Amino acid sequence: MAVADTRAALDPLDFLALDALLDDEERAIRDTVRQFVRERVLPDVGDWFEQGILPRELISELAKLGLFGMHLDGYGLPGASAVAYGLACLELEAGDSGVRSAVSVQGSLAMFSIWRWGSEEQKQRWLPAMHTGEAIGCFGLTEPDAGSDPGSMRTHAKRDGSDWLLNGAKMWITNGTIADVATVWARTDDGAIRGFLVEQGTPGFSAPEIHKKLSLRASVTSELVLQDVRVPDDAVFPEVSTLRGPLSCLNEARYGIVWGAVGAGRACFESALEYAKERIVFEKPISAYQLTQQKLAEMALELNRGALVALHIGRMKDDGTLRQEHVSLGKMGNVRGAIEVARSARTILGANGVTLEYPVIRHQNNLESVLTYEGTHEVHTLVVGQALTGENAFR
To answer: Which domain holds residue 299?
Structure first.
């Protein structure tokens, strides 16, 4: 007698049934963010990308969802798991990298820097307001001549009585123009690296927006300019005076990219799969041709592999066993994989793949920025290489 096959049908968008590895709370958070992206981001994000804007009201809506600093605890913050935060990043970047970046910079850079290194007064003042979106933050580390080597930063902080004077410039700063407060890292006369909270409107401080980008267009990207900016001593982070401070924040944000890249790749794969089933060439859908099926199979392999890496890294983070080298491995692999998925999806869509009627070219362009920000692919390669060999190849 034949035995009925009780196995669940294969889901092309969850080929390895990774959904079963999540708990109810993680799925609920994932589904909430996914629904938000479908309703509020996807209908208009092509226009935002074309116009080079990210609507301010969207930031307020992201705050209402509780996404800002969702993985931090205390001070009215949710204290969600690392996996839950990662799933939120995945769904946000399935909408657009710029949307995920807005959340990531607010929570994992600006808020995390205060949460981890700030004084109690700084935490009480800023963290609750930043969680609700009443205050927007940015993170100033990268400079025009100091990206991958932050230790060579030129932004300088000098004592002046009980105050500090800041001079320098930061570059490629997400949220900079709209931020109420900036975490600015600067070198002091004794060679220390200190973090300073600089408020919008402080004399000598400006944050002009950077235009003419062809990537991350649905995102506010700015320069920070500091000309004799005077801040009081209580604006300084008291708990850190080395590069460990900013690098710990970057590692926190890079973790979100490990997940987010999978979301961007999934959006491209989903678009290509739907298109391949509908596009008729030589009297049959292109999904029926071997070359197209090979592309789709390779894309599915890369996305499921990336999702497994992200989930495992997330579980390690929740268990307290995650190292920065693990995050570097995840970022270098998942971003590179997502770019390959996007490029393959573009070929399936043909000329339609370069229009904003479909999400593919937008994600492909965005991923070119994701490849190099918060640590270039080359830098993460050397981080992993040093972990493997014990040899420092940076200098």
So the answer is: 244-389
The pLDDT score that the predictor gives to residue 1 is 60
Residue 169 to residues 153, 225, 307, Cα–Cα distance (Å): 9, 5, 37
Q: Give the residue numbers marked as catalytic.
A: 374
Q: Quote the DSSP letter at residue 13.
A: T
What is the number of alpha carbons within 13 Å of residue 96 lying toward its C-beta?
30
Residue 174 lies in a domain: yes
% pLDDT > 90, the chain = 91
Q: What integer pLDDT is reported at residue 395 of this predicted model?
A: 79
Long-range contact list for 16-25, CB < 8 A, 24+ apart? 16/304, 16/307, 16/308, 18/304, 18/307, 18/308, 18/311, 21/311, 22/83, 22/87, 25/81, 25/84
- On whether the CB atoms of residues 371 and 336 are closer than 8 A, the answer is yes
- Whether residues 119 and 162 fall in one domain: no
Beta-strand ranges (E) seen in 239-383 are 280-281, 284-285
pLDDT for res 5:
67
28-45 per-position pLDDT tens digit: 999 999 999 999 999 999
